[in-house]
Write a structure and sequence with these properties.
The protein is of the alpha+beta class. The protein has 3 helices and 8 strands; from the N terminus they run ββααββαββββ. It has helices at about 15, 50-85, 110-115, and strands at about 5, 10, 95-100, 105, 125-135, 150-160, 170-180, 185-195. Strands 1, 2, 3, 4, 5, 6, 7 and 8 form an 8-stranded mixed β-sheet that branches.
């Protein structure tokens, strides 16, 4: 499965090699499967079921290889584009995207891009120190009802090298990556929160 960011661009070779692997659970609550009967994606268990916790673990385990790679590929792509061509970030956002930058909210592509492209520096380099990823799993629904694909939560911390300053600025940033309903392998930034960290 090839992962695309909104705008149609295929990302890195890492993202191109992403494959979804569903593994059937051996938990006694798992539905019976056979080689000719693929495991539903995602595994859906009614909220009232005593097996809902086990089902959540099964779904999380199945998603694990993908959300980590999706998050890592996004982080590499986002900061590379930010540092080299900020206006090119626009396809990652949608009219419903929300950016909170140092406590100030901006909603929609135009407002977000106006803020990002007007930041008071000519050069910037992001140095990522840590990045963590979680799948945001859809709520369980009744059998037979469609479920939304999982989105991805990304938390980044690191340093900013701005212009020619020898003193890096520490920052933290959170992204919520949502899949395109028409193409679940295409992700866009639903939420974006940025803060400088002052000692």
């Amino acid at each position: 499965m090839r992962i695309r960011w909104a705008g149609g661009r295929v990302l890195s070779d890492t993202a191109k090699r992403i494959k979804v692997r569903h593994r059937a659970s051996r938990h006694s609550c798992a539905p019976p499967t056979s080689p000719s009967t693929p495991l539903p994606s995602p595994l859906v268990v009614p909220l009232s079921s005593p097996c809902s916790t086990a089902a959540a673990r099964v779904t999380m385990a199945a998603a694990a290889p993908d959300y980590q790679r999706i998050g890592a590929a996004f982080v590499a792509h986002y900061y590379n584009v930010f540092d080299t061509s900020r206006p090119s970030l626009a396809p990652l956002y949608r009219p419903s995207s929300l950016l909170t930058f140092e406590g100030e909210p901006f909603m929609g592509v135009e407002a977000i891009m106006t803020k990002l492209t007007s930041l008071p520096f000519a050069k910037v380099v992001h140095q990522v120190a840590t990045s963590d990823y979680q799948p945001v799993m859809p709520d369980a629904v009744a059998p037979g009802m469609p479920t939304a694909p999982a989105s991805v939560l990304v938390f980044v911390s690191g340093s900013l090298m701005v212009d020619d300053s020898p003193n890096p600025l520490k920052f933290s940033q959170v992204f919520h990556l949502a899949p395109d309903p028409a193409n679940p392998t295409s992700f866009w930034v639903r939420n974006d929160m940025f803060r400088l960290n002052y000692a």
